[in-house]
Amino acid sequence: MTQQAGGPRTPPSGLFPTTRTRPVYREPHPVRGGAVAAGAGAGAVWLLAFGVVDSTVRGYAWWTLLAGGIAWLVALLLARVGDRGVAVGVAAATGVGWSVAAVVVVVSWLNHGDWPLW
Description:
Elements: E1 2-4, E2 7-9, H1 33-51, H2 57-81, H3 84-112
Antiparallel strand pairs: 1-2
């Protein structure tokens, strides 16, 4: 028994634990919103830079596919050894960019009746 200012005190029995007994799991490399926004901005600028290289629908679609493929490889590399938040932003921007290119190709196909990519 130990003597304290409030009188004698017995050690806790363990029936009512005084400390947290459950483990706390934390992500070792958490994804932050600012990093995702930075990756999305960088991915959008990257796709835009490649998208304006050609003025035809066919050229825009192929350049966007190429730029998106490169961006996905960079996102995979960033997810493995870099900032995963930036990787998520780049991948999301690439997905949106590919979707826009697909809509442009389909609309052109419907308007002209000819598949624009071949």
